[in-house]
Amino acid sequence: xxxxxxxxxxxxxxxxxxxxxxxxxxxxxxxxxxxxxxxxxxxxxxxxxxxxxxxx
Length: 56
What we know:
It is built from 2 helices and no strands. With about 55 residues, it is mostly helical.
């Protein structure tokens, strides 16, 4: 569980910053709702890792 949360938090937070750079660079419209959802998911995973660090 801990490994999955770590993986998800890293992937979601990284991709939420790279997605606008990638799509903006190739001239496509950036779906900001999708970016906000990925960032929120990464923050939630990080919160769960910190909140339940002793149980995981």
